Amino acid sequence: MTLTQLEIFRAVVERGSFTAAARRLGITQSGVSHAIASLESELGVPLIERSRSHFALTDIGATIHGRIQELLALARLIHQESAAARGLPQGSLRIGSFGASASLRLLPNLIAGFQARYPGIAIHVEEGIDAEVLNWIHERRVDVGFVVLPSDDFDTVHIATDQLLVLLPRGHALAGKAALTPGDLGAAPFIMTLGGSGPLVEALFAEAGVQPSVRFRIQQISSILSLVRRGLGISIVAELALPEDLAGVAALPLKPRRTRAVGLALRSANPSLAARAFFDFAKRLPRRQILAQG
Question: Do residues 169 and 253 both lie within one domain?
Answer without folding.
Answer: yes
